[in-house]
Design goal:
The structure holds two protein chains of two kinds. By secondary structure, chain A is mainly β. Chain A has no helices and eleven strands. In chain A, strands 2, 4, 5, 9, 10 and 11 form a six-stranded mixed beta sheet that branches. Chain A has a five-stranded antiparallel beta sheet with strand order 1-3-8-7-6, with no helix packed on it. Chain B has strands spanning about 5, 10-15, 20-25, 30-35, 45-50, 65-70, 75-80, 90-95, 105, 110. The chains are: A mainly beta, B mainly beta. The interface of A and B includes residues 36, 42, 46, 93 and 96 of A.
Chain lengths: ~110, ~110
């Protein structure tokens, strides 16, 4: 009930291409869905987040698409750059209770020249 | 400080020894979290502190793990009688209030030999 499933495990995209990472959740009570970016040797950093009252949120080259009925959300990175090469984690949590996040298992993105 | 500070950054310990990991959250952040990241895995919730409320310890994997937060600021995660399966990166995060974006530290890489 608390799982968040993330795919793909790894992704190689050419510079300028679109990177797409998908997540699916089971607990319909989840109402906060952030994405984190992690570089080697560093802690994860909040990239962008969405709540289920909207279907899409865009910040620069990063967009979250949210499908409440399918219990899925995805991260799109437009015009991918080599500097975007990192591990990306989706997560979900409940508000109104302890805000511990349930994380996906991560996607290692490599953007090639 | 400017960010979440964790010490030590690396710790190698012998099986059976006790270890203490320290976290200094961002000043003024009332919520503090500990997560564990095993190689190639997502982040596993351990414990959550919010202000003066009783901590949420539901993620601690065994009674060998404990944590405290003194004065609403610094936190220490203690692992007693370490086992090889405790080897992981232990990440601390803080947020200014519940249900708000986390700021993670760079973690403590624990290796039990």
């Amino acid at each position: 009930q608390q799982q968040v499933k993330q795919s793909p495990q790894s992704l190689i995209v050419q510079k300028g291409g679109i990177s797409i990472i998908n997540c699916a959740y089971e607990n319909t009570a989840f109402d906060y869905f952030p994405w984190y970016q992690q570089f080697p040797g560093k802690g994860p950093a909040l990239l962008i987040a969405i709540r289920p009252d909207v279907s899409e949120k865009k910040e620069g080259r990063f967009t979250i698409s949210f499908n409440k009925s399918a219990k899925q959300f995805s991260l799109h990175i437009m015009d991918s750059q080599p500097g975007d090469s990192a591990t990306y984690f989706c997560a979900a949590s409940l508000t109104g209770t302890a805000s511990k996040l349930t994380f996906g298992t991560g996607t290692r993105l490599q953007v090639t020249l | 400080g400017a960010g979440v500070s964790q010490s030590p950054s690396n710790k190698v310990t012998e099986k059976g020894k006790d270890v203490e990991l320290r976290c200094d959250p961002i000043s003024g952040h009332t919520a503090l979290y500990w997560y564990r990241q095993s190689l190639g895995q997502g982040l596993e919730f351990l414990i959550y502190f919010q202000g003066n409320s009783a901590p949420d310890k539901s993620g601690l994997p065994s009674d060998r793990f404990s944590a405290e937060r003194t004065g609403g600021s610094v936190s220490t995660l203690t692992i007693q009688r370490t086992q090889q399966e405790d080897s992981a990166v232990y990440l601390c995060a803080s947020s200014p209030r519940r249900n708000y974006g986390y700021t993670f530290g760079s973690g403590t890489r624990l290796t039990v030999v």
